[in-house]
Sequence to fold (514 residues):
Amino acid sequence: MNTKRMVSLSGILILLFLFFSFSIPAKSFASDTTGTQQVVEHKKVESSEHNGDQAIKAKEEHNLGSELPLWTIIPFVGILLSIAIFPLVAPRFWHHHFPKVSAAWALIFAIPFLFVYKMIAFESILHIYLIDYIPFIILLWGLFTIAGGIYVRGTMKGSPPVNLLLILIGTLLASWIGTTGAAMVMIRPLLRANKHRKHRVHLVVFFIFLVANIGGSLTPLGDPPLFLGFLHGVSFFWTLNLFPEMSFVASILLVCFFLMDSYYYRQDKQFMPTDGEKEPIKVEGAFNFIFLLGVVLGVIFSGVAHLGHFTVFGVHMTVQNVVRDFWIILMGLLSLKLTKQEIRQGNEFNWFPIKEVAYLFAGIFMTIIPALAILQAGEHGAMAGLIRAVKEPWHYFWITGTLSSFLDNAPTYLTFFNSALGKLGIHETELRAAFANGTVTTQFPEFIKYLTAISTGAVFMGANTYIGNAPNFMVKSIAEEAGVPMPSFFGYMIKYSIPFLIPTFILSSLIFLR
Fold:
């Protein structure tokens, strides 16, 4: 009860602070606008929702991000700290009340935001849920549901070579069926092969590093930022040029994983049952791969089709994206209908992981609004100094990657993509033509260096935190449901991502981006 009271009191104090603080920028903001015709409009990053060079519209004379001070991200920081700290200091409270905590942080931001900015705030909130959150959850639900109907039956012993092979397969799949698709397909076989082992945390962590993130860097299908680049004129197969960087980073991590797994495997042998009768390996529910392919094709369709658009309370939406979302739902429902219940039971399938992600990210998407707005304001926002300091390719790699570790990596990618174009005075139509003609490397060699840095930073560094990329938290939740004691938010960073990823990224940037 004390925990509940403390949380409630803290929420009230922060809410009062934001009510008072929001009114300060609101006054100057209101003085610049007279009537609804001069209302500030966001630069709306449509991620993979807009077509071609219409992905972002800078119609506004003013940008909300230029008005918001940096401390408006307090609720966003608050929800991240809640995810990091509550499971450690109040695990029972968190387990029973994490949806309420997520909702509380969302309301702490939304109430003063709506009170001060009114329709601007309403449209911003509606935009992030209609354009970002709902498609995000639909895609995760579809892939989670379909992958839950694919069961690898048989005797598969989780030895270091077998585990290395499983993670390598997932890493290679990630660029072609997406990091989320590959993660949902491969995580259960990996967990099942190692169910008798005592040390399993490192298996899941390196799986997140490689399958859920780094492996998705070779095609626009792999990760949303690369798909967004494809929509903005980057040729589909250009990302194959990232193979040297991807293979370098992946090779180091795979070697580290194999050495660590071999060490723990020797310790775990005493916990493993004696070899009984071996059952041949076979895949049940393999027809679900058709539905998985259907989801991938649906995502591609939404990027290349032009079926028109409509608005919902001022939010621009495209028909092809709505078609895509209903198509993904259909694929998931068909999987549920046609897959035998025994297969899902064999996978120990349940809905908790997707519910946990849906609840927590509902709050994260609400509170991330000011952070994204400030970032998209570029040199006119509260992060102007940071944006201006980005000059060299390795600068782009680290700033894009660091922000992608905590924010949505798609708008982060687009922000620095446009920043690099502006820095070099390149128009997007020129870039499209250069890619189409195959002359981009000779015509814009400096931009290619920037694009390489931005692309690898956005994709690779999604592995730095649990919220850096869509499948990370889902994999964590599935692993915990399987009994793996996953580290906390900060524990993951301190024990794994900082010691393993950061030195690897430093080496990569020194070799490829100098």
